[in-house]
Amino acid sequence: MAKKIKVLLAKLGLDVHNRGIITVAKELGDAGMEIVYIGNSLPREIVQTAIQEDVDVIGVSSLGGAHLTLGKPLIDIARQEKLTESVVFVIGGVFPPEDMVLLKKEAGYDAVFTPGATRDEIVRAIEGLVDKKKSGIASGHRN
Q: What gap in Å lies between CA 78 and CA 89, rounded to an integer?
């Protein structure tokens, strides 16, 4: 039996718009993934919880504009802890189009989801990214 993908989900900072992330948590759980939801958290808390829980994916949500001010530091802290080599990082929310590019290319998120992303798109992306990271680690290649 294959190990379930374990996903840590959190809201960045004090953003209280949580309907989307709760919906995603339910959908990922329904797709067979194990979900750890920690609610509102700061980058260091998210990374520390990810280490303690030994997760495959960190997914954060931002609808209050903290996607760059807290989203980039999250990746920076994760890099210091060497998590970016083995953990998939995804972010969802409402962002200006130019910020979506910054989140992927400059901050280092593996995937960025905006409103309208379907359950299947999110699930397939996470499964594919986890497989890619795991196969890269197994073969000795780093992303």
A: 10
66 and 88 Cβ atoms separated by less than 8 Å: no
Tell me the one-letter amino acid at 141. H
| pLDDT at residue 1, as a whole number | 53
CA dist 122 and 31 (Å) reads 10
What pLDDT, in 10s, does the model give residues 92-132?
A: 998 888 999 999 998 999 999 998 999 999 999 999 999 99
* Domain formed by 12-56+67-138, architecture: 3-Layer(aba) Sandwich (3.40)
Query: What is residue 103's three-state secondary structure?
Result: helix
Short-list 20, 141, 12, CA closest to 74: 12
This prediction's pTM: 0.92
| CA 27 from centroid of its chain's CA atoms | 15
